[in-house]
Every structure is written in structure tokens, then in C-alpha cells.
Specification:
With 421 residues, the protein is mainly α. The chain has one domain: Up-down Bundle (Growth Hormone, Chain: A). Helix content is 77%, strand content 0%. It contains 18 helices and no strands. The radius of gyration is 21 Å and the shape is globular.
Amino acid sequence: MRSKVHDIWQKLNPSGFVFRYYLATFFSGLMFYVSVLVPFYTEWGHLNLTQVQFLQSWLMIWMFVLNIPTGALADHLGRKVSVSLGGFILAISSVVYVLIPNFYLFLFAEFLAALGTSFVVGASSALVYDYLKRSGRDNESKKVLARSSSFSNLGTIVAAPVGSLIAAQFGLRAPMIISAIPLFIAAIVILTVDEPKTQKVFSRHDLINTSKMGISILLKNKTVLYLIASDILVWIGAYFLIWLYQPMLVKVGLAIIYFGFIRSAFSLAATAATFNIHITERIFGSEKNFVNLTAIIVSATLIFIAIYPSVVTVVIAIILVGGLASTRSSFMNTTMNEFIPAEQRATILSATSTLKTLVFAIANPMVGFAADHSLRLTFLLIGFLPLIAFFLLPYSLKLKEHLPKTEPLAGQPEPKIVGVI
């Protein structure tokens, strides 16, 4: 028995990069507040849904401002430092949130959350991809990144029902402040990993030049822009489902103690679908069918809620959208990594995140205002958006055939490795 346990432990390789990265993503997913976030805002914070979504726009505007410079800093100063720093700042933002129920304090907490997230976005997946590439395992990037998303979802599966139980017992503030602890732990774990070193000399000119070059490469790559647009149109359904399912459940009379279990169903579906992403893709027969049909299914389930609002339709949407939209987004994001120069990777991935946050920053208050007036109409409107992604698909009949491999920039050779893991 002890021998079997030892063999399993050796296979897990707890001292290795991938194991520690999975561990950090699991802890970062332990957000106990997710199952009661909207009641936290509306009942404890005394906000309406328009104000709630304005806070999300405020968060995204700051991410729009901060994503590219923090991504460039990650390229120059080290990706693991960037990711770890982001985790510490996110932990602080959770503490600030529960000080007093004040809208302006919430704005400051969201600014901290934007800063922390910006240090993580781009740098996190770039850290993984660079490690795998330097180790001769770059063909594993899709699997590792998809499984890291699964471990994050696993954290949410654990945290969501616990968070709703904590809220029912100790109040709506408690899940928010407890969430700071796993974020702090995740930041420490990331600090313990090694990362491939590149010979770079940092200067303000380098930072500005890296940012400009990253944006320029992104805007010239029409296929990557297509992937971003398609990803946004489908993911917007999953994003607003998470924000609107709680007020819908309140409207149909479900007790708050059950919210966490329904939120866990979203993450459980996402984990099951993304952990074996290749199997999920094969079920649909081809990449074209996968991208096509997932858009249609997400659209149909959201429209179904609008027509028949009930606990049952919400749960169906949570499971289908959670699994399919998450897998589709993971597919889009990991595909991009293969066609971005290593020395610009964190910058360009941050630029793609910047474009996404701009879209959501504009959409948030509009959807919040609509939801204050009619939840059913709002579900109907966001349900039609993924269909646009379906009609965009003829632009790229076979995704990989239309993804030209990006060569290193002229005058910028591949960075030399100073230390390898």
C-alpha cells in the first residue's frame, strides 16, 4: 500500500513546475464569495444591478489601462514575479471590500482587483508555455493550460457551496474576506517555481517599445483578431449568466443556501469538459463543428431561460454553458499561444485581454440597466450574441490552416536561455 502511494506521489512530482502551477491555480479558484456575490452587492452593499455592473465596467476600464504595461513588465522582470504580485494584490482587494458598505470604497477595491488581475493575465499562460517550450514539451501546452483551468474550476466547485453555507451562517461579508487566504497561498506557491530566464536589459524605452510592438503584431494578425471576436461573443453569454442567475433564482424564490451548489455545477461542468479537452473536441467530430455547435448551444440555453424562467432552466444553462463555453474559450486562448513570438508573448496576450475587457466594460452597465427592468428580456438579448460567432465561422473554415505561424521579429532573435528547469 505504501509503495502504491509512493508511486502516485512520484508521478505527481510535487517539486515540479506543472504540479505547483496546478496547485496555485486550485488555490486561486477557492473564491468563497462567488455563490453569493450579487446578494453581497445588493443586500449588504445596497446597490442595484446597474451599479453592480458599473463596478465591473470600472474594473475592466482599469484592466484596459493596466493590462499592456503590466504584461510588458512581466516580459522584462519575470512572469512568476508578476503572477505572484497579482495574487497578493487580489488578496488585499478582498479585505478592502468588506470594510464598510460604501460604493466609493468598492470602486477602490475593484481598482486593486484590476491591478492584481492585470499582473496575472498574459504572464500566467506565458510562464507555462515558455516552461514547456524550453523543456521540449510545447505540444503539451493545450493540455496543461486546459487542466490548470480545470483545477481552478475545482477550487470553485469546493468553495461555492461552502461560501453559501458560510454566508447563511455568518453573513454575506464572511465569504469575501475568507477568500483572501487562498489567494495569498497561491501567490506564495507561484514564487517557489522556477522559470526559464531570458537575457533582457530593462529600460523605460524597452517597456514602451515592447508595448507598441505587441499591439502592432496583434492588430496585423487578422486570424487572432477573429479568434478573439468569436471567443468574446460566446463567452459573453457565460459571463452574464454568472451575473444574472442569482437574481433570477431570487426571483423564482430559491433560498440563498442553495446558490453555491448551483454555482458549483457551472465549475464542475467546466472542469469535466476542459480537463480532457481533446475528448471534448472529438465528440463534435471536428474543430469547425466544435466551434460552431458550442456557439449554438450556448445561445439556445440562454434563450430557453428567457422563455421558461425556473430553477430547472437555470441549472440546465449552468451545466451546458459552464462546460461548453469554458472549453471553447480555452481552445481559443491556447491556440493563440502557438503563433505568438516568445519575447512578446505576455505582452500580446495582455493586449488580447485588453480588447476583451474594453468590450465587457461597455456591455456591463447596459446589461445591468436592462436587468433592472427585465431579467427575461436581458437573457433573450445576450442569448442572441453567440449566434453572431456562428455566422462569423465561414471566415475560417479550418482554424489551424488559417493560422500563419509567426516568426521572430526582424532584428529580434529568439532569447537565449540563461537557466533551464
